[in-house]
Design a protein that fits this description.
The protein has helices at 16-28, 53-56, 64-70, 150-160, 182-194, 269-286, 355-363, 365-368, 383-386; strands spanning 7-12, 33-38, 43-45, 61-63, 74-76, 82-84, 90-93, 96-99, 102-105, 110-112, 119-120, 138-141, 167-170, 197-200, 218-221, 224-226, 255-257, 299-306, 309-319, 330-332, 339-341. It is α/β, with parallel strands linked by helices. Bound molecules: flavin-adenine dinucleotide (FAD).
């Protein structure tokens, strides 16, 4: 009998998209897939928990080598530098070149400071002062063009939990979290008001301007996001990779991309996972395997949580016409006006739902030492809402 041919896959990245694709490929594989996970960072980090650090400590993280091992992949602690496209694309990293049958690029977006001198989420830590009484006024600014604005509202809720007034979100959105539809957005507005957060909507604070720094005693901004401009791949004006409806890089047969690295306005973990599922299915088919024909349509999910109060938001997205170009991977489905509920609308009830990964993390919460479903890593600490420095707790 002929020996079965191995099909070699490189996944570049170690975030939600890369890990989801690795898990999905392990699920679809008939044993012939040989998967390398290429990432310079040794850990998967729960990025939504970056904003919760002053209240619940640093974000939860998990070792990528061990994770890869569990899913039958091989972890390569190096960086994707360049891809030489062709029938058998070659990935180069750390001076080494290796050919693969398929490549998935999931290297995320690069955050940049939108306003000079303003604290920026994801670029350095947030100060403990935000969690302390007597902190003064706080403005959380959403730069124009930000597709996923929820972290600004979650951060404002945490800051307002000290009980002091003067916390506001400044955003270009006409209504808070308008992306979930008008009805859900109304619920968000009520939730924010009841927890002491004001919203200044429809305000455009131009990137690069000094205006942001003068908005409050403490100003925190969301970052602007840029694509990594990987050599050998096409990219748009912002450096993001254009993909087709199965996540294939436009014009390149065996190269796929998923997550924040792709062109599209909504940079969000749930959608990154959705794209990774789609790419993994296409790669498995290329390898001659038979993954399921269909999977859930793209859905935007968001969770705001403070103390014992939670608000779950959900809205279906429709695939847009890929020919319409950048920003068009998804669009709102007119059929779904959006849903808001104070009860979980999905399981596990993660702030960032990537179902394979969220289930895996939820099952290991003890080993992780925190709550992987929450926007703060260790919400059981009283510091979560009382403003006590984590380091001062017994
Ligand atoms: C504060 C905050 C709150 C958020 N809240 C939510 C939320 O509530 N819900 C939600 O769905 N989303 C949320 N998001 C968005 C979500 O975190 C991102 O959309 C998601 O992480 C994107 O996943 P990704 O795998 O595409 O990229 P990333 O998570 O950015 O991962 C990219 C990976 O690629 C690696 N890498 C980079 N360059 C290279 C290279 N050259 N070679 C190899 N590897 C490389 C990086 O080390 C990293 O491991 C939030 C983000 C932030 C910052």
């Amino acid at each position: 009998m002929e020996p079965a041919t191995t099909f070699r896959v490189a996944i570049a990245g170690g975030g939600v998209a890369a890990v989801t694709a690795m898990m999905a490929l392990a699920d679809h594989s008939d044993g012939r897939l040989e998967v390398d996970l290429i990432c310079p960072a040794g850990d998967f980090v729960l990025r939504p928990q970056l904003i919760g650090a002053p209240w619940g400590g640093p974000p939860l993280r998990t070792d990528l080598a061990a994770l890869a091992d569990e899913f039958g992949a091989h972890y390569r602690p190096t960086q994707l530098e360049r891809i030489e496209a062709g029938a058998c694309p070659v990935v180069t990293s750390d001076g080494l070149s290796k050919p693969y049958d398929a490549v998935l690029v999931a290297t995320g977006a690069t955050p940049a400071m939108a306003y000079p001198g303003v604290l920026t989420v994801g670029l350095g830590g947030l100060p403990d002062a935000l969690a302390r009484p007597g902190r003064g006024s706080v403005a959380v600014v959403v730069p124009p063009g930000t597709g996923w604005t929820l972290p600004a509202y979650q951060l404002a809720l945490l800051v307002a939990a000290t009980g002091e007034a003067g916390v506001r979100v400044v955003t270009t959105e006409p209504r808070p979290l308008e992306i979930f539809g008008t009805t859900a957005s109304g619920r968000v507005a009520d939730f924010l008001t009841s927890h002491g957060v004001d919203v200044e909507s429809g305000r455009h604070v131009a990137p690069g301007s000094q205006e942001a720094a003068e908005l409050a005693d403490h100003v925190v901004a969301l970052p602007t996001l840029h694509g990594p401009r990987i050599a050998g791949l096409p990219f748009d004006a912002d450096g993001f990779i254009p993909v087709d409806e199965i996540q294939r890089v436009r014009g390149l047969g065996a190269i796929f991309a998923a997550g924040d690295v792709t062109a599209g306005s909504i940079k969000q973990g749930g959608l990154a996972a959705h794209q990774a599922e789609r790419a993994a299915m296409a790669i498995a088919r290329m390898a001659g395997m038979s993954p399921p024909q269909k999977f859930d349509p793209a859905t935007l999910r968001g969770k705001l949580a403070i103390g014992n109060d939670e608000l779950y938001l959900r809205r279906s997205l429709a695939d847009a016409d890929p020919a319409s170009g950048r920003d068009a991977l998804y669009q709102h489905s007119d059929a779904d006006p959006g849903t808001a509920s104070d009860r979980p609308l999905w399981k596990p009830a993660a702030a960032m739902l990537a179902w394979r990964l969220s289930r895996w993390l939820d099952d290991r919460r003890r080993a992780l030492g925190g709550d992987p479903l929450s926007p703060i890593a260790r919400p059981e600490l009283p510091s979560a809402v009382m403003g006590t420095k984590t380091s001062e707790l017994p």
